[in-house]
Amino acid sequence: MRVTMEHMTLIVDCELCAADRVTEWFYEDDVCWIAECEACYVPMVVWKRHDPNPPEEIRVVMHSRLRDVVDTHYGFEHWLDDNMRTIPSHYHAHARPRGGFSGHGLRRG
Ligand SMILES: [Zn+2]
Ligand SMILES: [Zn+2]
pTM of the entire structure? Predict the structure, then answer.
Protein backbone atom coordinates (compact mmCIF):
# COMPACT_ATOMS: atom_id res chain seq x y z
CA MET A 1 0.00 0.00 0.00
CA ARG A 2 1.29 3.34 -0.95
CA VAL A 3 0.42 6.54 0.79
CA THR A 4 0.59 9.58 -1.34
CA MET A 5 0.99 12.87 0.35
CA GLU A 6 -1.35 15.37 -1.08
CA HIS A 7 -0.05 18.78 -1.69
CA MET A 8 -0.72 20.39 1.66
CA THR A 9 -0.64 24.10 1.27
CA LEU A 10 -2.45 26.28 3.67
CA ILE A 11 -3.35 29.48 2.02
CA VAL A 12 -3.90 32.24 4.48
CA ASP A 13 -5.52 34.84 2.38
CA CYS A 14 -7.62 36.36 5.07
CA GLU A 15 -7.00 39.72 6.64
CA LEU A 16 -8.58 38.68 9.89
CA CYS A 17 -6.58 35.46 10.24
CA ALA A 18 -3.44 37.35 9.36
CA ALA A 19 -4.23 40.18 11.74
CA ASP A 20 -0.97 41.14 13.31
CA ARG A 21 -1.78 43.69 15.93
CA VAL A 22 -1.17 46.72 13.80
CA THR A 23 -3.81 48.35 15.89
CA GLU A 24 -4.29 48.27 19.62
CA TRP A 25 -6.14 45.20 20.81
CA PHE A 26 -8.66 45.99 23.48
CA TYR A 27 -9.42 42.44 24.39
CA GLU A 28 -8.41 38.87 23.69
CA ASP A 29 -9.41 35.45 24.91
CA ASP A 30 -9.62 31.93 23.51
CA VAL A 31 -12.71 32.74 21.51
CA CYS A 32 -12.18 36.14 20.01
CA TRP A 33 -10.23 39.36 19.88
CA ILE A 34 -11.37 42.95 19.71
CA ALA A 35 -9.58 45.82 18.04
CA GLU A 36 -10.36 49.03 16.28
CA CYS A 37 -11.21 48.43 12.63
CA GLU A 38 -8.66 50.18 10.44
CA ALA A 39 -11.27 51.09 7.88
CA CYS A 40 -14.12 52.23 10.09
CA TYR A 41 -12.49 53.50 13.28
CA VAL A 42 -14.93 51.57 15.39
CA PRO A 43 -14.25 48.55 17.60
CA MET A 44 -14.89 45.16 16.07
CA VAL A 45 -14.88 41.66 17.46
CA VAL A 46 -13.28 38.88 15.45
CA TRP A 47 -13.84 35.19 16.04
CA LYS A 48 -10.61 33.22 16.27
CA ARG A 49 -11.88 30.67 13.79
CA HIS A 50 -12.03 31.13 10.07
CA ASP A 51 -15.71 30.42 9.81
CA PRO A 52 -18.64 32.68 8.99
CA ASN A 53 -21.18 30.97 11.26
CA PRO A 54 -20.38 30.76 14.96
CA PRO A 55 -22.91 28.90 17.10
CA GLU A 56 -25.43 31.13 18.83
CA GLU A 57 -23.81 30.81 22.27
CA ILE A 58 -20.43 31.93 20.89
CA ARG A 59 -22.07 34.81 19.06
CA VAL A 60 -23.71 35.98 22.27
CA VAL A 61 -20.41 35.87 24.15
CA MET A 62 -18.57 37.82 21.44
CA HIS A 63 -21.26 40.48 21.33
CA SER A 64 -21.21 40.99 25.06
CA ARG A 65 -17.38 41.31 25.04
CA LEU A 66 -17.70 43.89 22.32
CA ARG A 67 -20.28 45.81 24.32
CA ASP A 68 -17.91 45.87 27.30
CA VAL A 69 -15.14 47.32 25.15
CA VAL A 70 -17.42 50.00 23.75
CA ASP A 71 -18.55 50.97 27.24
CA THR A 72 -15.02 51.03 28.62
CA HIS A 73 -13.09 52.65 25.78
CA TYR A 74 -15.61 54.62 23.73
CA GLY A 75 -18.85 55.12 25.57
CA PHE A 76 -21.04 55.80 22.55
CA GLU A 77 -24.47 54.39 21.92
CA HIS A 78 -23.95 51.63 19.40
CA TRP A 79 -25.56 49.01 17.26
CA LEU A 80 -24.07 45.67 16.32
CA ASP A 81 -23.31 45.27 12.67
CA ASP A 82 -22.44 41.70 11.74
CA ASN A 83 -23.10 42.14 8.06
CA MET A 84 -19.73 40.99 6.75
CA ARG A 85 -19.28 43.03 3.66
CA THR A 86 -15.59 42.87 2.96
CA ILE A 87 -14.62 39.53 4.51
CA PRO A 88 -17.71 37.34 4.30
CA SER A 89 -15.95 34.08 5.15
CA HIS A 90 -14.71 34.98 8.61
CA TYR A 91 -17.08 36.03 11.37
CA HIS A 92 -16.64 39.51 12.75
CA ALA A 93 -18.96 42.23 13.98
CA HIS A 94 -18.59 46.00 14.24
CA ALA A 95 -19.98 48.19 16.99
CA ARG A 96 -21.14 51.23 15.08
CA PRO A 97 -22.30 54.49 16.60
CA ARG A 98 -26.06 54.78 16.70
CA GLY A 99 -27.24 56.66 13.66
CA GLY A 100 -23.87 56.30 11.94
CA PHE A 101 -21.60 53.91 10.16
CA SER A 102 -18.01 54.82 10.87
CA GLY A 103 -16.31 56.27 13.90
CA HIS A 104 -14.54 59.08 12.09
CA GLY A 105 -14.31 62.08 14.33
CA LEU A 106 -15.50 60.22 17.38
CA ARG A 107 -13.61 60.92 20.51
CA ARG A 108 -12.78 58.07 22.77
CA GLY A 109 -14.02 58.35 26.32
ZN1 LIG B 1 -9.95 34.22 8.44
ZN1 LIG C 1 -14.64 48.14 9.52
Answer: 0.83
